[in-house]
Design a protein that fits this description.
Number of strands of chain A: 6
CATH class of chain A: Alpha Beta
Helix content of chain B: over 70%
Largest sheet of chain B: none
Structural class of chain B: mainly alpha
Number of helices of chain A: 5
Oligomer: heterodimer
Strand order of the largest sheet of chain A: 1-6
Number of domains of chain B: 1
Shape of chain B: globular
Radius of gyration of chain B: 20 Å
Number of domains of chain A: 1
Order of helices and strands of chain B: HHHHHHHHHHHH
Distance between the termini of chain A: 13 Å
Largest sheet of chain A: 2 strands, antiparallel
CATH topology of chain A: Alpha-Beta Plaits
Helix content of chain A: 10-25%
């Protein structure tokens, strides 16, 4: 069953504590200038301000995967997590232009140029493509730290069907209040 | 400092990562190289008739590959890991991606171009029919290189400015037009004269570009209103504002449309009335400047309009 993130901005719960950014950086040893998850603020300082944590949403049909010229981006069959093979990535930046959520990240060195290969949210599968001594790929259970640490449960992660069920329940709860249109679901 | 300006631009005109001025340069030089080869190939059919066509044919065919390599160096300098693909082209295995398709087209173009250059330098004897055949195939590849520079952008489906249907015809027309312009310029420098056919071709392409620029503005404005995807309509609106009244409006309206389209049209018109090489050289230079500014605006305004990080 595909794994997904669900951002619950239903009650504009995110308080922009950036705990998700901090734990992600710490746990995944993310280099400077790269954000595998970033809290984006829309309409800052205005009425209707919305804080939105943005990791990779591990799309069912990822546009980054389609445009990658070297097949460096791949979707794991077991759980649908989108990963990058850094041995093959040439750091062309095409995926960054294709992704609507800004998930592919590139580190810049010095005043110019991109020094590295693409880096993105791995649903906390570490490392990206773990292999044993014989070179065979090892399956690692994904446990997204951002969802675990989020104090307001804005970020939820898990199986797509489970998340959809939770979402439906919440929607039914609030339908009478007429606030369904404020519900955001990203797959 | 120079490196910083080249890759990030100046102040307000700073380009958003990860694609910046180096990519705009690559797209411009790719289009220019394709246009030069096509012009050189077309001129080779008239080389018996005039000395200018003879020189333009030689220049267009030989220098096009060098221009393309300079463009590739600009790309590699900004994205150093791309060098891995130069040493191992089979890394480009996803033939559903225009970046991979374009890279293979460039590779085949450069191989055929090298054969033609070796033949021109006299190290290889070739039947004239075979040579014309190779040139025709390479002219098609040159056209595909220009088209690829546009389709490369169009494939990024969440960037509204690049999604417009006007982008591929504009890139193709602009690429061939800049190729003709640099060949006209070379003919003037070398032979102190220009050919009427080349000027007519360039004027026609500029007129074609003007129509598609109008369509681009209409398209991007309508996208800002009609799309149901809010980020898309917001991005379209932001892009339209950036090129029409915002940061890049000067570059787009005065630079691309003014210097790159209207001015050469007027100057070419004047040169039909009174044949002066200075006016013709100026019009060719303005076409080249306009073509480069167009790529910068298209990359920069799109990158700036992406809402999320």
């Amino acid at each position: 069953m595909p794994l997904k993130f669900l951002m619950d901005v239903y009650n504009t719960k995110c308080i922009k504590c950036k705990g998700c950014e901090a734990i992600c950086k710490n746990f995944n040893e993310v280099p400077d200038g790269v954000f595998r998850i970033k809290v984006v603020t829309i309409n800052e300082g205005q009425e209707g301000q919305l804080n939105l944590p943005m990791p990779c949403l591990h799309c069912n049909d990822p546009p980054c995967l389609k445009v990658c010229p070297t097949h460096a981006i791949w979707k794991r069959q077991e759980d649908g997590v989108v990963l990058v093979n850094k041995d093959v990535c040439i750091g062309c930046g095409y995926c960054a232009s294709a992704c609507p959520f800004g998930a592919p990240q590139f580190r810049r060195s010095g005043a110019f140029g991109l020094d590295g290969k693409m880096d993105k949210c791995s649903f906390c599968v570490q490392p990206f493509n773990p292999k044993d001594a014989s070179g065979k790929e090892i399956f690692r259970e994904p446990k997204p730290r951002c969802a675990m640490v989020c104090p307001t449960q804005t970020i939820n992660a898990g199986e797509q069907a489970e998340l959809a069920k939770t979402l439906r329940e919440r929607a039914l709860e609030k339908m009478s209040a007429g606030a369904l249109e404020r519900l955001f679901l990203f797959f | 400092m120079l490196k910083y300006i080249f890759f990030y631009g100046l102040g307000e005109h700073a380009l958003a990562k990860p694609w910046g001025l180096a990519i705009a340069t690559y797209l411009f030089l790719g289009g220019l190289a394709g246009g030069m080869f096509i012009t050189g190939f077309a001129a080779s059919f008239y080389r018996q008739k005039s000395r200018v066509f003879e020189e333009v044919s030689k220049f267009g065919i030989i220098v096009s590959g060098i221009v393309l390599v300079i463009g590739l160096l600009s790309l590699i300098f900004d994205h150093p890991n791309v060098i891995n693909a130069v040493f191992n082209p089979f890394l480009f295995s996803n033939l559903g991606s225009w970046l991979a398709i374009g890279s293979w087209i460039i590779l085949f173009f450069l191989i055929l171009w090298f054969i033609l250059v070796v033949e021109r330098l006299g190290y290889l004897k070739m039947n004239s029919n075979v040579k014309t055949g190779i040139m025709a195939v390479n002219a098609f590849l040159a056209f595909m290189i220009i088209l690829y520079t546009a389709l490369l952008l169009r494939e990024a489906r969440f960037v509204p400015l690049w999604l417009s249907f006007a982008i591929p015809p504009l890139f193709v027309a602009s690429g061939i037009s800049t190729g003709i312009a640099i060949c006209v310029l070379y003919g003037i420098v070398k032979e102190r004269e220009s050919e009427l056919r080349l000027k007519i071709a360039d004027v026609s392409l500029i007129a074609f570009e003007i129509i598609f620029v109008a369509f681009l503005i209409f398209d991007i404005s309508s996208m800002a209103k009609d799309t149901s995807f809010p980020f898309m309509s917001f991005g379209s609106k932001f892009s339209a504002e950036l090129i029409l009244s915002g940061t890049y409006s000067g570059m787009f309206l005065y630079g691309f449309i003014g210097i790159g389209l209207i001015l050469p049209l007027i100057l070419y018109g004047l040169s039909f009335i009174r044949k002066t090489v200075v006016i013709e050289a100026l019009s060719a230079l303005s076409v080249l400047a306009g073509g480069y500014l167009f790529r910068i605006v298209i990359i920069a305004a799109a990158a700036k309009a992406i809402v999320l990080p």
